Amino acid sequence: MSRASSTRLALVVVVSWIVLEYLLRHGGAALAGILLDAPTIGDYLALAVGFPLIAILLSRYALDRGQSRADWEYD
Fold first, then answer.
1. What CA–CA distances, in Å, run from 62 to 23, 30, 39, 50, 75?
2. pTM to 2 decimal places
């Protein structure tokens, strides 16, 4: 994968994370807070479930576009 396409992919993943986290915290957490009648618990619950789902979604996106796990440098 070229450096330019790798940089573009990273930009897409970072912007997607920000947008999805915003939607999760303002939509999902608010809804969970209303349903549980406890906004703080709703926020924690939405983050505990939502963050792993966002990570799975975006890592799958990167893998499908040719970014291998070895390129992530998480050693």
1. 21, 29, 33, 18, 18
2. 0.76
